[in-house]
Fold Histidine--tRNA ligase.
Amino acid sequence: MSTFSAPKGTYDLIPPDSSVFLAVREAISTPLKRAGYGYIETPGFEAVELFARGVGESTDIVTKEMYTLTTKGGDELALRPEGTASVLRAALEANLHKLGNLPVKLWYSGSYYRYERPQKGRYRHFSQVGAEALGTEDPALDAELIILAFDAYRSLGLRNFRLLLNSLGDKECRPVYRAALQEFLRALDLDEETRRRVEINPLRVLDDKREAVQKQLVGAPMMRDHLCEACKSYHEQVRELLTAAGVAFEDDPKLVRGLDYYTRTTFEFVHDGLGSQSAVGGGGRYDGLSEMIGGPALPSVGWALGVDRTVLALKAEGIELELPAHTDVFAVPLGEEARRALFSLVTELRRQGVATDFAYGGKGLKNAMKSANRSGARFAVVAGERDLAEGTVQLKDLESGEQSAVALDALVDTVRERLSDSPST
Ligand code: ATP
Ligand code: MG
């Protein structure tokens, strides 16, 4: 233990658990790559104003959760609390939307920062993989993204998750609904902060987790009863496409999500084994966001899935991912001369694509074989001066215990053959 520990609300990813994180990121991004999404990476910080305008002044993210800083040059920056505003900012800056090939489909993966009260599944530094499809209004695009997220979770073996679905309407029907909801909410017995929220963003009051608030919301007007014909038909098409793809969903008329920029399709994936931090991912359509950050009208849809909570969901379901062994061959030299010869062999094996490790530190045979077994390698290559004088090494199959002499210059081919005959698990 050193004098320092990881900052509150953060944790380190350490082997072997870290490989599960990599596998989850890979599992989420694989379906996206197959569906024409290109990788985008943006800075870890942006102008505070981008999030204030893009995420919304009244959201928890902007009012309470942002890590902001003033640079020595006087710029007001924030560590990114989410990905969508940055991705849209970058796409507009690079004029991707003007290249005449809409939608612009992008995916990303990285660290996000929110000053939250740390608890299981809620951290101050966390990891998301996200996807955005910019510039097209088409229910099939909303359905595509939801299906890709669903397939990603399924490919990890997850079963106990549910998809909640809602429509938040558009600039035609939402204002009318908003006014009706406000009228209802103003008559309730609410604390001062919530009353303020009623005036700024009344939809978010529906999302209030407190029992005392939820009790009073019985009979509140619901967006789904106020959708205009265009929104109703759009939503119906999304639902039909999901059903056709075998993606089960639950209509959740109260699902509004934390961000201000959502329109029409809104969804959240929840996992039933995670306690109160049950949301593993979510997203929706954000047709107005581009204009909010000074861009042209650019109807878009996207999602972000939480990697940390997906890993917790795997644990909750007792799923052990089949991760490829990280070492195929472990080389054990006996004596100084063998050390040089085997070290060259290790380099050669690696260059030929065989994952290989070496008994460093001049260990004796017994300890070196222990390391070989611990490494998870399928084979140990053991050689002393006598073997080398004969131009051979001992190849030991660590699964069966079988051992045989193999000519040094045939070793790479022999190992590769035997590995492909019986791929290690
Ligand atoms: P919650 O309601 O749990 O606060 P959220 O609505 O703020 O979630 P989003 O902004 O939609 O979450 O982020 C998408 C996903 O990122 C979430 O579903 C979750 O899996 C993950 N996530 C968000 N905040 C955190 C956090 N503080 N720690 C770990 N994961 C998080
Ligand atoms: Mg949150």
